[in-house]
């Protein structure tokens, strides 16, 4: 499969036949979408996430008084320690959800639709990365505009049922796989205020302790899931206006829809595909595609699903992602800057924070910073709180892969330390060699009081780190959109980013005079260490030497509206353009 989307317009993906364009699936459009390139923190929700911090100063928003942390009455506060038996981010929070009521000020659309998202991930119960965040945020935004929205998700064995409201078995049916009809359960429930339909086969698929990495064949499992979703729609008579599929995992669904279920009973739906990460194509053998009831040999052509990278190989392979591109009515990849779910990511209501804050009063952020410093051993009880707070704190929350600028992340550790700051890295490396390199850095740095490298992913800890951070570092080599910089700003963390993709669309340099009104961070263009050094140097100088300007920047970035309210309308336009 050719990575560049330009080849999709050259005929190879779509086929030049004008007669085929009369098919409704051929009335299509390619939409360039700056979607998230993050992903693959292999996380599934568990009961340990229903937790509350050791103590909260108040449930009120923010801290009323200005001034130093010593004004907060911290003598009575129970501070965490790295020697605690239970890490501070695993204490008992009351629930996942903050304020998830649909905002009343959102204007309802006049032409309402039924939209079903078919996805491998959903935040927060089956979140691996940005895909889960985008699905949940977009679904909530469309609900708030008056549309009917459902999410269809595999019922992974790691999902904790107590995290689902009103979980009910609604359908038992059979779905085809590899010559057999597999008994399958469909459950309905509500997660974060969003209706979800969970698909649970009776055999081994989706059993395990994680979203990905089970003992079953993942590609075959998602082929089953793609057909099982359509089969459920058929047996229940469900005819949504839009079926929105995401990533290679559901790339077979458009093929199954147009070449099978559209000829059976599903006439109304149209298919939209969003590509979140072009790294993964869903490479598939013809005999594997046969397992879902399609003839794999029919798709081994340039205008259908052959993986261009394997042409001339023995055997040639198919790409589920390419097949999804060819068979969808609209494809969304770059051009739409995604939003963040401001119900889940809200420092004024966030259940994971020891103190709440907001753009009009962000004093509570100081307490969050000191709380994290104490909990990670970056400050001890012997420190005067205000002294610890003066140290700039850089946070990097990312998947540790080459795309994210690994060499710059590693260099930043040294540079931040030399500048007299502190840095916390939170993330996992899917490559064992990268994991080993970072384990070496853990052994080298984690005993001091400047650097903490946490080779894991924790939803709770990520909230705490965003709230504690003075800077959020995103030095990606490429980034279709990126959410970290937008979430960071929401929590008052000023972004330091490399100018690429969605980072260039959302972060504007403080020293760029022509765009001073938009300035909200520190930007560098090169991929070299010197470029990063200069950006960090400017950022630290502003933090230390210009306190009034710094407070103005924090207030400004917290007020930036990166919500889905702005972005969802673009998706609605796409849905409208292809609906029957």
Describe the protein in words.
It is a single chain. This protein is α/β, with parallel strands linked by helices and 580 residues long. The protein has two domains: 114-340 and 570-579, Rossmann fold, CATH 3.40.50; 362-561, Rossmann fold. Helices cover 29% and strands 16% of the residues. The protein contains 15 helices and 17 strands. A nine-stranded mixed beta sheet has the order 1-11-8-7-2-3-6-5-4, sandwiched between helices. The chain has a six-stranded parallel beta sheet with strand order 14-13-12-15-16-17, with helices on both faces. Helix 2 crosses helix 3 and helix 8 (406-418) packs across helix 13 (529-545). The longest helix has 19 residues, at 218-236. The model is unreliable at 1-22, 32-43, 45-66 and 95-99 (pLDDT under 50). InterPro entries: Glyco_trans_1, GS/SS, Starch_synth_cat_dom. Pathway: Glycan biosynthesis; starch biosynthesis. It is an enzyme of class 2 (transferase). One of its GO terms (molecular function) is alpha-1,4-glucan glucosyltransferase (UDP-glucose donor) activity.
């Amino acid at each position: 499969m050719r990575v560049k989307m330009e080849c999709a317009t050259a005929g190879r993906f779509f086929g030049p036949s004008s007669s085929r364009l009369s098919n409704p699936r051929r009335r299509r459009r390619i939409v360039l979408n700056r979607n998230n390139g993050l992903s693959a923190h292999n996380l599934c929700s568990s009961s340990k996430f229903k937790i509350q911090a050791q103590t909260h100063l108040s449930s009120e928003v923010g801290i009323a008084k200005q001034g130093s942390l010593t004004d907060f009455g911290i003598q009575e506060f129970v501070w965490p320690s790295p020697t605690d038996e239970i890490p501070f981010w695993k204490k008992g929070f009351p629930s996942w959800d903050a304020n998830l009521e649909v905002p009343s000020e959102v204007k309802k659309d006049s032409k309402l639709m039924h939209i079903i998202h078919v996805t491998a991930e959903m935040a927060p119960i089956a979140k691996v990365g940005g895909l889960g965040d985008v699905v949940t945020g977009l679904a909530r935004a469309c609900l708030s505009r008056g549309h009917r929205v459902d999410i269809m998700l595999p019922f992974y064995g790691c999902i904790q049922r107590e995290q689902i409201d009103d979980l009910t078995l609604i359908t038992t049916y059979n779905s085809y796989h590899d010559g057999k009809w597999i008994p399958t359960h469909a459950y309905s429930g509500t997660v974060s205020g969003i209706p979800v339909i969970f698909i649970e086969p009776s055999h081994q698929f989706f059993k395990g302790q994680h979203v990905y990495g089970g003992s079953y064949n993942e590609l075959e499992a998602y082929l089953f899931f793609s057909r099982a979703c359509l089969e459920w729609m058929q047996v229940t008579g469900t005819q949504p206006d839009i079926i929105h599929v995401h990533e290679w995992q559901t790339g077979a669904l458009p093929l199954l829809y147009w070449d099978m279920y559209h000829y059976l009973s599903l006439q109304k739906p149209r298919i939209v595909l969003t590509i979140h990460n072009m790294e993964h194509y869903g490479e598939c053998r013809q005999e594997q595609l046969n397992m879902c009831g399609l003839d794999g040999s029919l798709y081994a052509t340039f205008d259908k699903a052959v993986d261009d990278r394997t042409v001339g190989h023995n055997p040639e392979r198919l790409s589920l992602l390419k097949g999804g591109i060819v068979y969808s009515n609209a494809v969304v990849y770059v051009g739409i800057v995604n939003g963040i779910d401001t119900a889940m990511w809200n420092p004024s209501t966030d259940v994971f924070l020891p103190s709440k804050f907001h753009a009009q009063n962000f004093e509570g952020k100081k307490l969050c910073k000191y709380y994290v410093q104490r909990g990670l051993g970056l400050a001890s009880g012997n420190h005067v709180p205000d002294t610890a707070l003066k140290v700039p704190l850089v946070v990097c929350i990312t998947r540790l892969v080459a795309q994210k600028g690994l060499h710059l992340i590693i260099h930043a550790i040294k540079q931040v330390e030399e500048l007299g700051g502190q840095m916390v890295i939170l993330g996992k490396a899917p490559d064992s060699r990268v994991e080993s390199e970072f384990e070496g850095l853990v052994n080298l740095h984690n005993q001091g009081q400047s650097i903490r490298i946490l080779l894991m992913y924790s939803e709770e800890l990520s909230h705490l780190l965003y709230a504690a951070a003075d800077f959020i570092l995103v030095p990606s080599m490429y980034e279709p959109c990126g959410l970290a910089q937008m979430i960071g700003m929401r929590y008052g963390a000023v972004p330091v980013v490399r100018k690429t993709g969605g980072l260039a669309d959302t972060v504007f340099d403080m020293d760029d005079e022509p765009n001073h009104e938009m300035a909200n961070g520190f930007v560098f263009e090169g991929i070299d260490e010197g470029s990063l050094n200069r950006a960090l140097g400017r950022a630290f100088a502003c933090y230390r030497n210009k306190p009034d300007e710094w407070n103005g920047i924090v207030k400004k970035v917290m007020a930036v509206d990166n919500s889905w309210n702005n972005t969802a309308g673009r998706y609605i336009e796409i849905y409208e353009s292809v609906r029957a």
